[in-house]
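Thought: the user wants the 3D structure for the chain below. I'll pass the sequence to the structure tool as-is, report back what it returns, then summarize two notable features.
Action: structure_tool
Action Input:
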Amino acid sequence: MEISNEDKEFLELYSDSIYEKPSVTVDAVILRLVDKDTNNYRKLPEKKLQVFLTNRKYPPFKDKYAVVGTFIDLNNELAQTMKLCVKNKVGLDNFYYEQLYTFGEKQRDPRTRVLSVSYMLLTNQSVLENGEWFDIDLKYGDMKVENLKNGYRTSRQVKLILTGKDVVLDNELIVKTEKRGIESASEVLVENSALAFDHVKIIYYALNRLRNKLEYTDIIFNLLNEKFTLTELKNSYEVILGEKLLDANFRRKTANLVLPLNEYTQDKGHRPSQLFMHNPNWNKENIV
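Observation:
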């Protein structure tokens, strides 16, 4: 980027010492879909959405679980710092990512004012280091609605339960929305958290982002193997959305997203099913 002579003169006199500066981190919510074995060999494995967490070794929040993160490197771009972080800390180098949200509440870190630039990462790389995969369960309470003079206000409790190998982490959030006229504002409040900092909120934002993008993108294929059955694909949608889908609607929704292969599954105890792959030239305008 070129700057003018006027800018150069200004920069010679400029000092940033007059401004307070926060610390900044990058935090990565790493998600995957995994098959859960069933006791019935004739029943197909169930899909489960999981998040990868690490156990903090030092204060603050020593021994608490957290998403993967680090303070930024001023010599690298934010995304590059995040990529180096997940590779060096947990051995992850195969993933889709997008920037999620910036969290900056004053009390989110007891050390000092810390802004978190968060990312959502999707992978099917199963073996990571220095942490553990946790099953994700979201349970929504009833929606409370309060009518206002020119709008409304809603409130809903959300339980986000994370189940690991030997531990269950119970978390509670309150999701509030207020709409007045054409203006609308939402906020997520942490009522109870078993995680470090406000990382339960960051995870919740990532889950919402993933769920919303299922409606108009092909993002789900970043969580699947190269070849899959339509049943696997449908189960993956249902697990993330938290609802059952009608077969006809599902087939219409995904018709342009997949390509049929002349290959079939060979699982014992199950009828052979045709395999499909992602269609990289899908036309999103045809997704209803």
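Final Answer: Structure generated. The helical segments are 5-13, 78-90, 199-213, 230-241, 247-254. Residues 22-213 form a domain with the Nucleoside Triphosphate Pyrophosphohydrolase fold (CATH 3.90.79.10).
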